[in-house]
Amino acid sequence: MARPKVFVIFYSTYGHIHTVSKSIKEGLEKAGNVDIEVYQFPETLSEDILGKMHAPPKPDVPVITVDKLTEADGFLFGFPTRFGSAPAQVKSFFDATGGLWAKGALYGKPAGIFFSTGSQHGGQETTAFSFLPNLAHHGMIYVPTGFRNPNLFDNSEVVGGSPWGTGTVAGGDGSRQPNEKELSVAVTQGEEFANVVAKLAA
């Protein structure tokens, strides 16, 4: 019997979410019970605009298509916040999934979320919360992280993330990179999510 397949799909402007996605994948691999494919959301900004934003080149990761979604048994979506919700690139992609919605093609498939913000109070939880309607309308099963990783209780330093999912705090200028505690939460999220997907598939 083939193992269930999890897609990790991210949008990353400055690399923070891409870094977190690698630890998410590490956790999925650690569980050892799912197959994994990693994709990025399509970019909607021109190279000229991205250059003016001083955005680095996109990573060498394939771009997801709407039709490809039907091949997965579960999804972990990662993206930075834009005013407390998903960025336009992610919204635009989901706006194009109406055909899948009409067929119920994603119904019953589990999904989790990971995210980044510029500050501790920049929408770490609302980014996930405001994305839930996309999952609900498709009939997808939201799988939160909960407090499975003890670093979510750590108040000794800045640690992004919440029971809603893994999070990192990028800093106002993007100079802060995901730290070991945040990446540890990402590994936990990946591992626990894989176990849920495997149970549902069984």
Automatic annotation (TrEMBL):
One of its GO terms (molecular function) is NAD(P)H dehydrogenase (quinone) activity. Gene3D superfamilies: 3.40.50.360. Residues 6-193 form the Flavodoxin-like domain. GO terms for cellular component: membrane. InterPro entries: Flavodoxin/NO_synth (IPR008254), Flavoprotein-like_sf (IPR029039), Flavoprotein_WrbA-like (IPR010089), FMN_Rdtase-like_dom (IPR005025). Belongs to the WrbA family. PANTHER family: FLAVODOXIN-RELATED PROTEIN WRBA-RELATED, FLAVOPROTEIN-LIKE PROTEIN YCP4-RELATED. This is Flavo protein WrbA. The lineage of its organism: Eukaryota, Fungi, Fungi incertae sedis, Zoopagomycota, Kickxellomycotina.
